[in-house]
Amino acid sequence: MESVWASRKLVGGTSSDTGYQNAGNSKWIGSSNVTISNNYVHDVAGDGIVPINTTDAMVEYNLVDNSADSSWDYSANPNHAAIWSWDSNNVTFRYNEASNTSRHSVGSAVGNDSMAFDFDYGVQNCVYEYNYSHDNLGGFLMLCPGPGATVNNIARYNVSVNDGKYDGAPVIRMGTGKYGSLGVQIYNNTMYWENNGGYTMSLTPDSYWEGPNIKEVSVFNNIFYGPAKADSMSTKEGVTYSNNLVYSSDGSAEAVYEALANDAHAVYADPQFADVTDYTAGSWTDGQTTLGTAEGFRIAKTSPAVDAGMAIPEAPAYTDDALGGELVANKAEIPSVDYYGNALTDGTPDIGANEIVKTTDEDVKPADGLGMDKDGNWFYYKDGKVDTAYTGLAANEYGIIYITEAMAAECEKIIEKFQEQLFPAVIRIPGVSGNTGDGVEGVKKSVEQAVGSDILFGSET
User: Fold this and answer.
1) Is the pLDDT of residue 114 over 80?
2) Angstrom distance (rounded) from CA 215 to CA 391
3) Separation between Cα atoms, residue 157 and residue 159, nearest integer Å
4) pTM (predicted TM-score)
């Protein structure tokens, strides 16, 4: 798919401008109708899967294992990652697995990469969603704008498990460039490396590529779980952090994040994963790709991540006159499901890649006032619980309930609902505070409803 019709400012201009890339000297034209799916790529010297010069490509259900295999001699260009794109528009990566990148170099860095995923230069409106990375030498994600720009990209609802197999490996590498990393959203990802072999990772370190620019990069609603290297976060003005959960058994990640992130809504607590040992690797058998699972990284209903996220915004739409009108509309929609396929319906996102689905009476706490249970019975809720002082008699199927006028005034809506039913009959009576007349008025209305006229009190004046 690579082409010499690839030159544009987003990629740094022409091959003549940079002197080292393969963009050619002709105006960019992207290949369309490109789908890359259900492939097994393994033990290769360079990158795993890289769509180049494409528009609207779909990359899904692929297994890439041990790309950038360092047992090969590729010293001429040691910068490789598992799954990424270059000089392309609107590429979607979903349901892919990237694992064991540069596995023969565990303990030491290889070039700048060995990452699972990468927003490279010349790329706009790229989406990584519902992907799974594990045991890669590098970390989860890199921003690499180089001599051009990487613009309006999204990484969301992905799971990274025990990536970062050398000290200081980046979880998310924040790259600057000539035009820069612009309008990038990184949200609702789960990144866990506590059991990656004892290596401390850098949370969001800076990387300089041919320029200092990085603007409107937002990192929110993510889980960072594992030991962190000191001072390992980008604090550039163009990078913001919000509503992230940060935790490590030694407290180092919390200390780094709290000191540098300026996140007023951060959560510093154990996210309560189901079982951090419950994750599997994908396989290839009889021509069929079976992707691994990360079931152990579902969170508990009691997790501090539940309902602690910020609202998910519309897709980024950064504009810049310096890019010469090359930017196209970002059509990415707000996601409707989490990594595990659970619907995002309650309007308050959880932090991380798992959204707790609230379906039971215990999960859904109603507002104070009148409510109905799953069997259609009316109840009165107070402080999120059923107040049986108001509704217990009705629930026990009493035929007639006598209630003081004062108490009836507090639950008028419940009584109105009961009046729509045959039972119970609710009769107001005076209490110790005196007679308000509500009881008599209620009887008059009941009689009129039953027989059509006030036969009891009609002669009274």
Assistant:
1) yes
2) 57
3) 7
4) 0.78
pLDDT higher at 364 or 288: 288
Amino acid identity of residue 261, one-letter, is A
The pLDDT tens digits for 52-88 are 999 999 999 999 999 888 777 666 566 788 999 999 9
Cα Rg for the chain, rounded, in angstroms?
A: 30
Using alpha carbons only, give the angle 298, 301, 306 rounded to the nearest 5 degrees. Answer: 85
Cα–Cα distance between 434 and 431 in angstroms, integer?
6
Whether the per-residue pLDDT at 313 is higher than 70: the answer is: yes
Please state the three-class secondary structure of the chain as a single string: CCCCCCEEHHHCECHHHHCCCCCCCCECCCECCCEEECCEEECCCCCCECCECEECCEEECCEEECCCCCCCCCCCCCCCCCEEEECCECCEEECCEEECCCHHHCCCCCCCCCCCEEEECCEECCEEECCEEECCCCCCEEEECCCCEEECCEEECCEEECCCCCCCEECEEEEEECCEEECCEEECCEEECCCCCCCCEECECEEECCCCEEECEEEECCEEECCECCCCECCCCCEEEECCEEECCCCHHHHHHHHHCCCCCCECCCCCECCCCCCCCCEEECCEEECCCCHHHCECCCCCCCCCCCCCCCCCCCCCHHHCCCCCCCCCCCCCECCCCCECCCCCCCCCCCCCCCCCCCCCCCCCEEEECCCCCEEEEECCEECHHHHHHHHCCCCEEEEEHHHHHHCHHHHHHHHCCCCCEEEEECECCECCCHHHHHHHHHHHHHHCCCCCCCCCC
HSE-up (13 A, CA, CB side) for residue 227? 13
Given pLDDT bands bounded at 50, 70 and 90, which one contains residue 375?
Answer: very low
- 421, burial (CB in 10 Å: exposed 0-12, middle 13-18, buried 19+): exposed
